[in-house]
């Protein structure tokens, strides 16, 4: 059992995961499961709910993580371990005070405009456009929004780690 913290956003979790994955490799660890516990904003769920991520999606609701590598955009899958998601959901039944569900987690690069917030220093859209966007996200299966899940899912998948996000 190991616990590690990271800061906010994709750069922070990416650095932490690269270092952790190197440590796991040099320690010759096998059959590793990585569970990310984070914070998020819920979308159409009861306040205080925990969303177990089945798939991390980008702000266009696509299951992908795009990263520039040597000037080229590389697209990576963000599918997470569905059996592990079901296992975590089953464990949640033992803690009835925390409503828990499985859903898609949307990862954004920004806390304000990227998540449809109207209260940042800049806002280039109306409240009607915000509501329309969030309704489309909900229709696409998004149940929470945060800023790390696509990188987490992509790195776990590429490195053969069983991974799951719960926020």
Structure description:
The protein has 167 residues and is an alpha/beta fold. The chain has one domain (10-166): Rossmann fold. The protein contains four helices and eight strands, in the order αβββββαβαβαβ. The strands form three sheets. It has a four-stranded mixed β-sheet. The longest helix is centred in the N-terminal third of the chain and has 17 residues, at 10-26.
**Span between termini:** 20 Å
Please tell me what the overall shape is.
Answer: globular
Largest beta sheet: strand ordering: 2-7-6-3
Bin the helical content: 25-40%
User: What string, H for helix and E for strand, traces the elements in order?
Assistant: HEEEEEHEHEHE
**Which quaternary structure do these chains form?**
single chain
- The proportion of residues in beta strands is 25-35%
Query: How many distinct helices?
Result: 4
CATH architecture identity: 3-Layer(aba) Sandwich
CATH overall fold name? Rossmann fold
Number of strands: 8
Number of domains: 1
Summed up, what is this model?
This is Uridine phosphorylase 2. This protein has 167 residues and is α/β, with parallel strands linked by helices.
Short descriptors:
alpha/beta, Uridine phosphorylase 2, Rossmann fold, Nucleoside_phosphorylase_d, globular, 167 residues, 4 helices, Nucleoside_phosphorylase_sf
């Amino acid at each position: 059992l190991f616990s590690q913290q990271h800061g906010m956003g994709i750069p922070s979790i990416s650095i932490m995961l690269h270092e952790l994955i190197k440590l796991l490799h040099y320690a010759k660890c096998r059959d590793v499961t990585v569970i990310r516990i984070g914070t998020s904003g819920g979308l159409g769920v009861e306040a205080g709910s925990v969303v177990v991520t089945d798939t991390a999606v980008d702000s266009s609701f696509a299951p992908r993580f795009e990263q520039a590598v040597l000037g080229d955009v590389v697209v990576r899958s963000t599918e997470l371990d569905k059996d592990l998601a079901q296992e975590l959901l089953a464990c949640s039944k033992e803690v009835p005070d925390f409503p828990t569900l499985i859903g898609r987690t949307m990862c954004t690069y920004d806390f304000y405009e990227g998540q449809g917030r109207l209260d940042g220093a800049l806002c280039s859209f109306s409240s009607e456009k915000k509501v329309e966007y969030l309704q489309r996200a909900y229709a696409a299966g998004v149940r929470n929004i945060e800023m790390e899940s696509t990188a987490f899912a992509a790195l776990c998948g590429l490195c053969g780690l069983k991974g799951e996000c719960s926020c």
